[in-house]
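TICKET #2291
ISSUE: user wants both folds in one file
ATTACHMENT 1:
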Amino acid sequence: MHEAKRLRHFASDNNSGVCPEVWAALQEANTGHVTGYGDDPWTEKAKQLMRDLFETDCEVFFVFSGTAANALALASMCDSFQSVICSDFSHVETDECNAPGFFAPGVKMHSVSAVGGKITPEAIERAANARRDVHASMPRVVSLAQATELGTVYTPDQLAAISKSAREQSLFVHMDGARFANAVASLEVKPREISWERGVDVLSFGGTKNGMAFGDAVVFFNRDLSKNFLYRCKQSGHLASKMRFIAAQWIGLLQDDVWLRNARNANLVAAMLEAKLRGLRDVRILNLREANAVFVDMPRRAFDGLHERGWHFYTDVGPHGARLMCSWDSTVEDAEAFVRDVEELLR
């Protein structure tokens, strides 16, 4: 009964619908015939908008999913005997079924302990120098998530330090930017200030979680690494024949800063949700909230009661507690309704 009345939840920003601007862009692109596989005006315009956004001449490819963006990007940076240094909570380590190792057989994920979800330069150095002989996988890439899987955000200075450490070990830097927009909104910086200006070679830029139906971007700031990437897309089934419908969504998202407005709303609702929950007895905020995720712990009866009332959220993301993820279409009213239910259940 509760679920039938509830339109939005806090389980995942993947669960939200398509934002109006993206929907309109799809409808506009749905006219006549154009050449397939990306040789069309929409794809070219979307790529140029991406270059304008980052203020650099990057190479851009569109794929169907974030997993494909991460896996194909990492595969393009590694040989079969190499490894990827990543956080122990990173998506590429815990939630992608070793897709990088599928697209580049033999590639190994080398996870390191992260502080608040963030990899440190010291952890990179230790991992890169743990064993460098022929009997071990050769470290090749540092992969980090921005925002992190625990809801925190790397500052420009932290990214610069990580990139410096990576370069000293002859490593590339990959950024899983499934929630890159939320990080930009949180830090109030230009996209270049937390990407290529801080040493990021390749960015998996997420659109699906920020208002698109499907389709993420692989942005090569280091253009040398993009060699033959189109062949990887084709071989893996991620060279869309009707590419204009991925590209059109990016046009709808990037024009007029819709991507940033959507991310700001998700972050704002998360901030309000955190503030209201923080004031409740028997409720504990677990991590520093810097983007659109709130990690919280409370008595089990409250979690069970919230699920019974139709609220969807995960209790298996992160070390313990629950993750409440806000979306581009989350509202203050959603947050207030959730908190009211928590209050009632804890009385």
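ATTACHMENT 2:
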Amino acid sequence: MKATQMLHNFGQSIWLDNITRDLLDSGTLKHYIDDLSVTGLTSNPTIFDHAITHSKSYDSEIRRLVGTGLSGEALFFELAVQDLTRAPDLFAPVHERTASVDGWVSLEVSPLLAYDAKATVAEAKALHRKANRRNLFIKIPGTKEGAPAIEDAIFSGVPVNVTLLFTRDHYLAAAEAYMRGLEWRVEAGLRPDVSSVASLFISRWDKATMDKVPESDRDKLGIAIGQQAYAAYREILESDRWQRLAYCGARPQRLLFASTGTKDPKASAVLYIGALAAPNTVNTMPEETLLAFGEHGRVNGGIPRRGGDCEQVLAEFGRVGIDVAELGVDLQKEGAKSFDDSWQDLLKAIETESKALK
């Protein structure tokens, strides 16, 4: 049995952290679904920037859309929605078979709106309405300013993938926003069966610290952060507050481990996969990580219920001079800026392609 199937059987969903038109047209995504147990996917501005600038698959459609007068963000979202309506259709059987727990695809709102809650909600609603797919998440950044947007989107019935989470506190804030949105629905007499995932970024922790800590501590921080968030996730699911919502028909906001491609060239390509195996969670992997895990991955015991030795590991990083709380704040800011930069690059690429094809 392939390691990907073993991980799936263990109870963790495997999602692909990539979407391109070539993946769809070539049948590669269908192959990953059938042979590597992939049950969903995510996208972000960096992924789309790479897809559009490194493939000619979008040229004819860009040419057509330019002819209709579209440009910039409007043209991009037209392209993205086309891809992210085809992909949900491939995952529709998974979505039905799992009673909507799995089979999701994610589309991000403009990163330029990360600190504008009102505009974020408006765009989230518009994108979800435009795509018209039950198994489409709209990605909203889990910044402080993003919390009201998450609550409002959930209350409005828009499924949300909360992105750019780096710490346990970030995750708890995302979970709080999700539960408030559901509680408002219950108070309004609406069904609280609006789905969500909370995406915790892993590998950037180790990238930020690998040259600042002793060799024995390299590549341990990201896993410890993931284990700590998992312990908090389990506590929420066992809380009286969540049980009341579950009684009304709510589904858990699953914890998703994101950015699980290894950044350290000295480390295993599947460093974060087996170490962060946990039932009722998601791991979204870059293609190379997915393929490597399918070839030589292993699934061991999974994350302990209370996070194993994560607190000791985090304390060790404090002793060697890493302020984990401060670094978490910095990583979220850098992550938002990185997506902003990729977004600007994406819009420039679309403008360049549009002029060339015109």
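RESOLUTION: both attachments delivered.
EXTRA DETAIL ON ATTACHMENT 2: Strands lie at 12-16, 38-41, 105-108, 136-141, 160-165, 196-201, 254-258, 281-285.
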